[in-house]
Design goal:
Length: 102
């Protein structure tokens, strides 16, 4: 297995305490973006991978997406256009500054 250059985590609002998912990200359709991101990674030939993850504790900024090891934290990622900008920037080795959280 080759380790990815970037690992994108999309908040799916799971709670560490278990139970039903709650939170802004999944209510705003964050999980629905996973196939789109996966397909974009493949189409672009990026050495990246995408996974869903639990609540990132930034619910007011949902949907939240983070990229490691770059440590980019993005908020309000609620459209394919924003995802495209984020992936474009990653390919260029930078962050999509307009969507970064602090
Ligand atoms: S539900 Fe996504 S950050 Fe909390």
């Amino acid at each position: 297995m080759n380790k990815p250059d970037q690992h994108i985590f999309v908040c799916a609002s799971f709670r560490a305490s278990g139970g039903d998912t709650k939170g802004v990200c999944q209510k705003k359709g964050s999980v629905d973006f996973l196939p789109y991101i996966e397909n974009e990674i493949l189409d672009r030939g990026m050495a990246a991978m995408v996974s869903s993850c639990g609540c990132l504790k930034l619910c007011d900024n949902g949907p939240v997406m983070i990229v490691y090891p770059q440590n980019y934290w993005y908020g309000n990622v609620d459209s394919e256009e924003k995802i495209d900008s984020i992936l474009d920037a990653l390919e260029e080795g930078t962050a999509a500054g307009e969507y970064l959280l602090a």
